[in-house]
């Protein structure tokens, strides 16, 4: 009997289902050459029956037989209504091409292409559809300005500032609080001495978009507090061949002189050919340190090093760049292959004079303090960059796609600094000439293999396998000081010979870092189609996934100094220290008994090896309920971090940290209207120490005249993040958003300074901190706004952020203020862009950026906090397209505002030039660029 009733019910259900008809079709975008229009709304007018188009623009509706009006709508596009008659058991096909213009094409169009995702309009749509609070910048927007790399471009995003031209600060939090994804794969930390990613490594022409996730979700890594910055490299679905040539003129630099020490034959390729490296026969650290100063071992080792201490001048030519790229579509049977490949080579120069002063103590009585030192730095920088991109997309059918992406960078940086002035604390009125000659090369490979699979209408699978390799070589970093007595200005400058090996007197430093990482992640999505007798509801989604990430780093460093032992006669010592720089360390002046000897000061802790193994899993549910879009999830991460080095020659030190983190998240969107929504979000995230931050390796920073030291006791910080944002999307490509955020930190990792004659920076876990602020963004086109042909071609992009923060160091004695703002946090950031574009290929874009005064370096009882003064930057770009040629002229840093640092001697965290000391000041000059692009 039960089987009978079951068959009756099943038959009745099939009969009812069979009485329905089907409306299906494809929506395309007229403004994008009729590419598919995903996520558009398809609604039966006067009912709650509706759906959205899939990623290929397709839709499907089942309705009872009858006469209906189908409404097609999408953010920023004109709404289209189409009457239709539906009969039982029949399918009606309605294909529409939608537009944001005045006319609406009603003809049927069936297109099968890939939608462009690197336009401003596409990115605005992605931001609206995102489940988190996000900000973004597209390749289209980047191409309008003067920005040549990702660091320059990303500062146009709300709440973003850039430090030292390459490190990104999100919402006032230092660069260590960010996480970077490249093509969904975790990117490496590119710097030896800090946890950060150097965004100037990625050229803008290699990017499709950059998306900044400012709130957490279960499917994203949990190690961040500022933002997750996701870079997507170029994808192509058209065939092209392009050549780019560019030249740059920088005031203060181009056609003038630079000073560098002798170079290797391969510097123009971005790496050293072993000219600066230690010879292969050079003795090991322990052999050198165990040998007596008079030994033949030290003599042979010293005489094997190149005598490269004297700078020579060179004429500086124009900055230059050349690039070649092409895209191809290949049909391999049923497999469609799209490939984008590019090669870029550039050289750039920068020369400027930097005033550098130091004080000790504080000025609390309103008078300026006497200077401890007062120098002028002649800074000479030459960079060579090679970038190779090769991306491949394999489309097997509309349900299965695999992407293979590769990005390689080779960077060579030649940096020479000639510092001249006075150190009043050490030598009163004697005049110093201090030198630094450095060269650093970096090889970085970042690769991913991604897969997207639609198993059926309700089951989706995507995965990623990533591999990163980083090698940084800093061979023969030379730092030494010379001095001239104040009572004899005709006397030669004498080399300061140290009593023992150190990092700043007659010093040669050799550092090498190698790191590789591999990660693999998988996401599985189940779609639950929901339908009642009255209406068809938006589908719910269950998303499950995992991530495994392994990193291994090996860092080695050594340093040696030249000494004059006490047994060398005084007259011989006086003779040696007064020789010219090109003779002083000549092998003839190195002797076992009557000349220079070398001594190695390397400590066992100056080298280390480390690895990090992260395993993560998550579950996440997306549930649309009427006008609400609720996304909730939980992520669990277990992180095992190991650092190994020698505490002394015999005691092996291990630092093993294993931390389990439970990270819930909730994102709720309320769709007020079709064009506006309100978001509320909460997430818990963490911030883990980096390898270098745990190491006790000591490094001397010549620019700051300070030491940098790690802290093995650091532990993981926990952050609770709260966000509220209103978003309004008036028309296609336009947006207005206003948001607020609050972050609460437990044990944040913050800077600490040791009280000594010289600044020494380290890190500690503070007790607690908070950070809150507001963000405003406006993207607006003035089309049909002024009723003027020229003014209607204008568009603007304005964003502003105001941020407040405070860190509480707790009850410990840290020789600094117990509470202060977070280091690197600007109280406000303003970006303003105004653009003009006509129908004949002419575009003009002006971009203005300003940030508020922020803490550059934390002070203590002896050394004041260093503040970085607010600075204005104005860029201008003019481009014109002539069929196959595009000419672009740009001017960067038109205001040539000074980069000023002040010692906050009155301890009020404000700059008062009448009281505070300007500790660093320089102008980089204005950079004028001319770029030609030829499309074959």
């Amino acid at each position: 009997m039960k089987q009978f009733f079951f068959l009756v019910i099943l038959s009745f259900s099939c009969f009812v289902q069979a009485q329905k008809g089907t409306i299906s079709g494809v929506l395309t975008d007229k403004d994008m050459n009729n590419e598919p229009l995903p996520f558009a709304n398809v609604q039966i007018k006067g009912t709650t029956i509706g759906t959205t188009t899939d990623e290929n623009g397709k839709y499907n509706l089942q309705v009872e037989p009858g006469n209906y009006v189908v409404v097609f709508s999408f953010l920023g596009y004109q709404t289209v209504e189409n009457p239709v008659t539906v009969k039982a058991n029949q399918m009606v096909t309605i294909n529409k091409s939608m537009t944001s213009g005045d006319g609406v094409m009603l003809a049927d169009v069936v297109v099968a292409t890939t939608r462009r995702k690197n336009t401003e309009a596409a990115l605005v749509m992605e931001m609206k559809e995102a489940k988190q609070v996000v900000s973004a910048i597209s390749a289209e927007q980047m191409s309008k300005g003067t920005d040549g790399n990702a660091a320059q471009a990303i500062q146009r995003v709300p709440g973003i500032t850039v430090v030292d031209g390459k490190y990104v600060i999100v919402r006032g939090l230092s660069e260590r609080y960010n996480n970077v994804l490249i093509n969904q794969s975790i990117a490496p930390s590119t710097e030896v001495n800090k946890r950060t990613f150097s965004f100037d490594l990625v050229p803008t022409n290699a990017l499709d978009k950059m998306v900044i996730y400012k709130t957490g979700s279960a499917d994203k890594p949990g190690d961040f507090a500022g933002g997750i910055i996701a870079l997507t490299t170029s994808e192509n679905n058209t065939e092209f061949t392009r050549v780019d040539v560019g030249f740059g003129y920088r005031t203060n630099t181009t056609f003038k002189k630079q000073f560098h020490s002798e170079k290797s034959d391969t510097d123009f390729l971005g790496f050293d050919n072993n000219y600066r490296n230690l010879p292969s026969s050079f003795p090991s650290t322990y052999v050198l340190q165990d040998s007596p100063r008079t030994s033949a071992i030290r003599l042979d080792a010293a005489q094997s090093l190149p005598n490269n201490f004297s700078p020579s001048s060179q004429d500086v030519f124009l900055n230059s760049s050349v690039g070649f790229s092409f895209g191809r579509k290949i049909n391999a049977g049923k497999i469609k292959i799209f490939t984008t490949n590019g090669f870029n080579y550039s050289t750039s120069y920068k020369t400027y004079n930097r005033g550098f002063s130091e004080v000790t103590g504080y000025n609390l009585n309103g008078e300026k303090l006497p200077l401890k030192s007062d120098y002028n730095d002649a800074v000479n920088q030459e960079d060579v960059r090679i970038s190779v991109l090769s991306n491949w997309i394999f489309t097997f059918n509309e349900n299965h796609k695999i992407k293979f992406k590769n990005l390689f960078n080779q960077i060579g940086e030649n940096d020479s600094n000639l510092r001249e002035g006075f150190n009043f604390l050490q030598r009163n009125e004697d005049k110093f000439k201090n030198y630094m000659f450095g060269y650093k090369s970096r090889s970085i490979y970042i690769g991913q293999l991604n897969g997207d699979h639609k198993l059926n209408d309700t089951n989706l699978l995507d995965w990623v396998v990533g591999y990163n390799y980083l090698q940084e070589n800093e061979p023969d970093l030379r730092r030494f000081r010379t001095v001239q007595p104040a009572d004899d200005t005709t006397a030669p400058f004498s080399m300061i010979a140290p009593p023992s090996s150190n990092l700043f007197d007659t010093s040669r430093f050799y550092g090498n870092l190698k790191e590789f990482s591999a990660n693999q992640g998988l996401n599985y999505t189940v779609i639950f189609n929901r339908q009642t007798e009255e209406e068809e509801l938006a589908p719910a989604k269950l998303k499950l996934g995992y991530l495994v990430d392994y990193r291994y780093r090996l860092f080695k460093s050594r340093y040696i100094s030249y000494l004059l032992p006490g047994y060398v006669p005084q007259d011989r010592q006086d003779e040696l220290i007064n020789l010219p720089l090109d003779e002083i360390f000549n092998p003839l002046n190195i002797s076992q008994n009557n000349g220079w000897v070398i001594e190695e000061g390397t400590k066992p802790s100056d080298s280390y090896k480390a690895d990090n193994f992260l395993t993560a899993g998550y579950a996440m549910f997306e549930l649309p309920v009427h006008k609400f879009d609720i996304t909730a999830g939980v992520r669990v991460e277990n992180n095992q971090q190991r650092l190994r080095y020698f505490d002394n020659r015999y005691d092996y030190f291990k630092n093993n940290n294993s931390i389990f983190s439970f990270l819930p998240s909730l994102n709720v969107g309320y769709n007020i209207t079709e064009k506006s929504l309100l978001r509320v979000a909460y997430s818990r995230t963490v911030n883990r120490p980096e390898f270098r931050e745990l190491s006790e390796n000591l490094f001397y920073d010549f620019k700051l005249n300070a030491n940098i030291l790690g802290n093995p006791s650091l532990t993981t910080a926990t952050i609770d993040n709260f966000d509220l944002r209103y978003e309004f999307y008036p028309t296609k490509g336009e947006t207005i958003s206003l948001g607020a955020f609050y972050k609460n930190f437990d044990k944040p990792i913050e800077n600490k300074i040791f009280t000594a004659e010289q600044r020494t920076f380290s890190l500690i876990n503070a007790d607690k901190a908070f950070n809150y602020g507001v963000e405003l963004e406006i993207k607006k086109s003035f089309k049909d706004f002024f009723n003027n042909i020229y003014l209607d071609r204008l568009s603007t992009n304005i964003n502003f952020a105001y941020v407040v923060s405070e860190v509480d160091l707790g009850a410990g004695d840290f020789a600094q203020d117990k509470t202060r703002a977070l280091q690197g946090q600007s109280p406000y950031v303003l970006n303003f862009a105004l653009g003009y574009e006509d129908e004949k290929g002419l575009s003009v874009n002006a971009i203005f950026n300003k940030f508020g005064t922020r803490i550059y370096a934390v002070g203590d009882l002896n050394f004041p906090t260093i503040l970085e003064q607010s600075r204005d930057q104005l860029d201008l770009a003019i481009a014109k397209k002539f069929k196959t040629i595009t000419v672009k002229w740009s001017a960067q840093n038109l205001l040539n505002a000074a980069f000023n640092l002040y010692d906050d001697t009155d301890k009020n965290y404000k700059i008062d030039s009448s009281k505070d000391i300007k500790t660093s000041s320089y102008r980089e000059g204005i950079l004028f660029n001319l770029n030609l692009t030829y499309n074959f």
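The longest strand covers residues 536-563. Confidence is low (pLDDT under 50) at residues 1-18, 102-115.
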